[in-house]
Amino acid sequence: MELGHTDVTGTVQEGAREGNHNPKRCDAINSVLNRVGDKWSVLLVMSLAQGPCRFNELKRRVDGISQRMLTLTLRGLERDGLVKRTVYATIPPRVDYELTPLGHSLREPIEALGHWAFDHYECIVAARAEFDAKQ
Amino acid sequence: MELGHTDVTGTVQEGAREGNHNPKRCDAINSVLNRVGDKWSVLLVMSLAQGPCRFNELKRRVDGISQRMLTLTLRGLERDGLVKRTVYATIPPRVDYELTPLGHSLREPIEALGHWAFDHYECIVAARAEFDAKQ
DNA sequence: CAGAATCCGACGAGATACTG
DNA sequence: CAGTATCTCGTCGGATTCTG
């Protein structure tokens, strides 16, 4: 995954030339992109925006997610330090998930994306219709 | 894909209650998320940031992309109105791709994401190491 | 040069069943 | 309730080959 002399932050690398890029920056972009690219991750982060939530409550909120994907996605978010998992040793068991400060900080760029989506949706739909009409 | 009373723009819906969400907003979020979630799309948008570019030049810039995916991704971006395709009837043929104003506007939220990624990368790597150590 | 078409393998993700 | 463990099927995407 190399972009020549440009990266996804939009900054142009100083001494950039053919084959000379910033591998660390590339890794950073990639891992975050993979996380944000994952639709369940984004949905979960936004579902956890207002506060802690239990497993099954999350399952209800994020309609359509399977138990398996909910578990896997939460694990991934926890591993990345975006979500904190708290187990209460009660019967029946209770597990709360909540955003860490890092998780909260991710909301900003995600919401920026959400706003862009909403603001330009009509535009995109129109473009699609026009494109399809030509085929 | 429903979020109960929250959506990815972070705004809380006015009269939101169980099962009452904004389907149009959901569609908008989804289609944009799918596009941004697609790693090649993001990479291509950023590769086209500085100006028009030919097919094979793009293939060289976005290292690792297959011809097939380059074609398909460019088609998708063109269909969404993010990229403009210009064919020059020369021999050999020449096709230029460039961002539309809409495509350029998408750079902002993408770059915001890129900056977040870079700024918090160390943090994420550390979290992962800690998480993995506990297993 | 800029694709279109075909083949095919790997992996993502749903459904289902079981457990502490 | 909050998971884990399989199994399976669909599609995504890479490699290869062919064309105007």
From TrEMBL, chains A, B:
This is Helix-turn-helix transcriptional regulator. Keywords: DNA-binding, Transcription, Transcription regulation. The keyword Transcription regulation applies. Residues 26-125 form the HTH hxlR-type domain. InterPro entries: HTH_HxlR (IPR002577), WH-like_DNA-bd_sf (IPR036388), WH_DNA-bd_sf (IPR036390). GO terms for molecular function: DNA binding. Residues 1-23 are annotated as: Disordered.
